[in-house]
Amino acid sequence: MNLLVKARNAKPLSQFSSLGFLRLHSRVTAVDDDDGEEQASTSNLIHPTAIVHPNATLGHGSGAVVGDELPGKTVIGSNNVIGHHAVVGVKCQDLKYKIGDECFLYVGDNNDIREYSSIHRSSKPDDKTVIDDENLIMGSCHIAHDCKIGSKNILANNTLLAGHVVVKDYVHTAGAVVVHQHCHLDSFCFIGGGSVVSQDVPMFMMVSGERTEIRGLNLVGLRRCGFSVTEIKSLRAAYRKIFMPRNAESGSFDDRLMEVEQHEELGQVDVISSLVKSIRDSFKEQRRGISKFRNLNPS
């Protein structure tokens, strides 16, 4: 059941003495979208300083939401925690946005959106900003218009995502990471602290740097996510073939990808197929290519 939350008879902020989350049952009612009947909210936690816009939609057990006077809507799933002074579901900062256009934000379930984070709606009516499930978005992060965030990601403090960035699943950014618009961070990758990401990060990779370079596999993340010893061993072998050619006779980058695809053993491993596909997808039209890498001799 989607709940349309209306803030009624809210007291002035000066009258709230606690800075913690409060249950404002007497001042919040919920409307069942199916029959329009008002029901008392018993589990939505609304911070005293939060502004709940009538067009914000909350699932059962969600935290505070800050909406905006915009066409479109902000939809929040169940059991999300939204921290102090977070701004969720407001107008984007894209100058191409046309006043009066509908814009959308959809947030799934069980996300932890910490203090001072900002998440903006889409920049056009035929797109939307999306955050799936079970993400930890730490303090002062920014997710711009039209971003697509998957599930079980960790965005550390001051991670800044420009418009149209795609973050798949199980991605981990360290603090103060900046991501250029339209970049893709594929699943199980790790971004080192203070990095500036201006091209795609392939699946399973670890990158860092003022202009990110591929530094190796995200081995710690792979082990934590339950990848087997055999899968990790295969990924390391494929990584050496693709990114660490022994000499000029190893062929072009595309030749090395093809060699891995056609390898008698590696070509049969699912994670290797996923890695090669992730790399190839980054070179499709309107994509930005992959982060730079150094041709280091493996010996």
Question: What report would you give on this structure?
Answer:
There is one protein chain. The chain is α/β, with parallel strands linked by helices and 299 residues long. Helix content is 14%, strand content 24%. The protein has 4 helices and 25 strands. The protein has helices at residues 219-224, 229-243, 253-262, 270-281, and strands spanning 3-7, 28-32, 38-40, 56-58, 72-76, 81-82, 87-90, 103-107, 112-113, 118-120, 129-131, 136-137, 142-143, 148-149, 154-155, 160-161, 166-167, 172-173, 178-179, 184-185, 190-191, 196-197, 205-208, 213-217, 292-293. Strands 3-2-1-4-5-8-11-14-17-20 form a 10-stranded mixed sheet, with no helix packed on it. It has a 9-stranded mixed sheet with strand order 6-9-12-15-18-21-23-24-25. A hairpin with a 4-residue loop joins strand 23 and strand 24 (213-217). Helix 2 runs antiparallel to helix 3 (253-262). The protein is elongated. The relative contact order is 0.08.
The total of helices stands at 4
Tally of DSSP β-strands: 25
The averaged pLDDT comes out at: 82
Label the overall shape.
elongated
How does the helix and strand content classify structurally?
alpha/beta
The percent range for strand residues is 15-25%
SSE inventory with pairings:
Blueprint: E1 3-7, E2 28-32, E3 38-40, E4 56-58, E5 72-76, E6 81-82, E7 87-90, E8 103-107, E9 112-113, E10 118-120, E11 129-131, E12 136-137, E13 142-143, E14 148-149, E15 154-155, E16 160-161, E17 166-167, E18 172-173, E19 178-179, E20 184-185, E21 190-191, E22 196-197, E23 205-208, E24 213-217, H1 219-224, H2 229-243, H3 253-262, H4 270-281, E25 292-293
Helix pairs in contact: 2-3
